[in-house]
Every structure is written in structure tokens, then in C-alpha cells.
Structure to design on (310 residues):
């Protein structure tokens, strides 16, 4: 496997390049082979394609490389389990932590078994079970976000998909233990938010985080899924955009060519950021009140009133 130069620490916003906007037209890519010729995505839609790349490291790749003694926890204690959501406990740098995350799968068989990382209510209830266990035993939570969305099927809705995600949002906002969330690939809709209410939110440099997939956004706004590229541009999906808006706290660098070409370097950079978070947590840098304050900062805006001339 190819290797890249060691990556720097978390990127400062001033050093991160934003996606090209409409004023900078580029030749569109149409396949993963086209993507392989690029050192970095250029447009918002290319960011989406990079985040969805089939060779991008998955959650379990991070667990295998960064953590020791991983013990998986199954079941939501209400009669169900969900392979799309992986939960458990492990150790990193001598520290015990709880782990939650979506696993999209690698092979075709695993992708089908994992439902392409789209969790059902059983998955979110299982995650909530582990959140509460982490709080009980005083363990920090590490959450890996990688999903196009929560599973939208009729069975999931019948079994309480919306209430399950809402319960996680409420409980994570008041969970009395440090929580770190990192978007490693695709962070889509409430499916991502259901495990991403955290004291510190990080994103891989070429991951995406969005309210809905650009194709669905285009269908809603223009009744045309082919308008996905302008939709991606309007959604401001990149880590640089979201760091500017304050939604994301940390941008984790990726090697030139992306995590799908140099997975070990991207995973190691993420591990460094996790350890930095754990060290800050040990120094008392996080609390429930500070987490709530962070959440209250979202959506702030100012009104300017222009008075007419007399």
C-alpha cells in the first residue's frame, strides 16, 4: 500500500482551501477513475464523491488501527439489533473509552448486511444504551459518523425512527461525560446528528456533512435530481465551510490524493486528534454546560433595519 508524508496537526481555517464556486468552472468528473487523477476535490460535488469513495476507510478500519481490546456491544435491550450501527468499548493510549459509529461496509455482502451504514431505530437505541453506560462508568465517548442518512424505510418509520433519533439528541445534549464526534466520510441528515451531539466535532478534510444528500435536495427544490451539483454547492458541505460557520471545531488533514489512497495516514491523524481530545477532557476542558453553550451558538443571526428617508 502506498504511503504519504506524515500529516500536520489539525488544520487552521486560514490554511484550508474552500470548494470552487460557480465562477470557477471545471471539467466534471464522472467516475472514481477520474477522481484518482486529482490531489484534492475542487468543487462541492467532488467533495461528495470523495466522501462516498468505495476505498475510503470505514469505521472498523479506524477501530482496528487505533484501539486495543475492542469489545462490541449488541442489542438495544428492546428486542432488536442493527449491524449498521457498531457500538462497544475499547482502549486507546491506555485510556478506556466507549465507541459508537456507523459501518457502511466494504464488500458487497457486508454493505448489504450493514444496510450501507443507514441505521434503523434499533441502532440508535443501541447507541443510546452505550452512551448511558459510558456516563455510568465515567468513560469518554468516541463517535464515528459515516452515513448517507438514517434508514428511511417504512418499517423503520413504523418502529419509531424519528423518536429514536430525537431521544439521542436530547440525551447527548445532557450526557455527563465527554463526547468526541468525527465525520470520517459522509455525514448525512438526522442519521449523522443522532450520534454527533458532542463537546468537540471534527471532520476529515475531504469528508462532507449536510442536511440531506444533494440529489434529494435537488429533487425537493427543483424537481430534478440532475441539479445535484448546484445543490451541493448551496448546501456548503465541506469541512472548510462548516468550520467557518462554527458547526465543526476541528479539520483533520488528509494526504494529497485523499484518505482513499492513503488510509493509514488519515487514520493516524484522526487518532492524534482523539488523544488530544482525551487529554483535554482529563484537564477538565469539557462540561455539560459548555456543550449546551456550544449548541446555543448555532443559528445566530443579526437583523439590520434600514430606515427610509424622511
Amino acid at each position: 500500500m502506498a504511503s504519504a508524508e506524515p500529516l500536520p496537526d489539525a488544520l487552521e481555517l486560514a490554511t484550508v482551501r474552500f470548494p470552487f464556486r460557480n465562477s470557477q468552472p471545471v471539467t466534471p468528473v464522472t467516475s472514481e477513475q477520474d477522481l484518482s487523477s486529482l490531489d484534492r476535490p475542487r468543487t462541492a460535488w467532488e467533495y461528495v464523491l470523495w466522501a462516498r469513495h468505495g476505498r475510503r476507510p470505514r469505521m472498523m478500519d479506524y477501530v482496528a488501527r487505533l484501539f486495543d481490546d475492542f469489545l462490541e456491544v449488541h442489542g438495544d435491550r428492546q428486542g432488536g439489533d442493527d449491524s449498521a450501527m457498531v457500538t462497544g468499548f475499547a482502549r486507546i493510549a491506555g485510556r478506556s473509552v466507549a465507541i459508537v459509529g456507523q459501518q457502511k461496509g466494504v464488500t458487497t455482502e457486508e454493505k448489504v448486511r450493514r444496510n450501507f451504514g443507514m441505521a434503523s431505530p434499533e441502532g440508535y437505541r443501541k447507541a443510546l444504551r452505550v452512551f448511558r453506560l459510558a456516563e455510568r462508568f465515567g468513560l469518554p465517548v468516541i463517535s464515528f459518523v459515516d452515513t448517507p442518512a438514517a434508514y428511511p424505510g417504512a418499517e423503520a418509520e413504523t418502529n419509531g425512527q424519528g423518536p429514536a433519533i430525537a431521544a439521542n439528541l436530547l440525551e447527548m445534549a445532557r450526557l455527563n461525560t465527554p463526547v468526541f464526534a468525527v465525520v470520517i466520510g459522509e455525514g448525512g441528515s438526522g442519521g449523522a446528528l443522532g450520534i454527533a451531539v458532542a463537546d468537540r466535532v471534527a471532520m476529515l478534510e475531504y469528508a462532507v456533512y449536510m442536511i440531506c444528500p444533494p440529489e434529494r435536495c435537488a429533487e425537493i427544490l427543483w424537481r430534478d435530481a440532475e441539479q445535484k451539483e448546484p445543490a451541493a454547492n448551496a448546501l456548503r458541505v465541506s469541512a472548510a465551510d462548516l468550520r467557518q460557520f462554527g458547526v465543526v471545531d476541528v479539520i483533520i488533514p488528509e494526504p494529497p490524493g485523499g484518505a482513499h489512497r492513503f488510509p493509514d495516514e488519515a487514520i493516524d491523524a484522526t487518532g492524534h486528534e482523539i488523544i488530544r481530545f482525551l487529554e483535554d477532557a482529563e484537564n477538565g476542558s469539557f462540561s455539560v454546560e459548555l456543550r449546551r453553550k456550544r449548541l446555543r451558538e448555532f443559528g445566530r443571526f443579526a437583523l439590520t433595519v434600514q430606515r427610509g428617508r424622511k
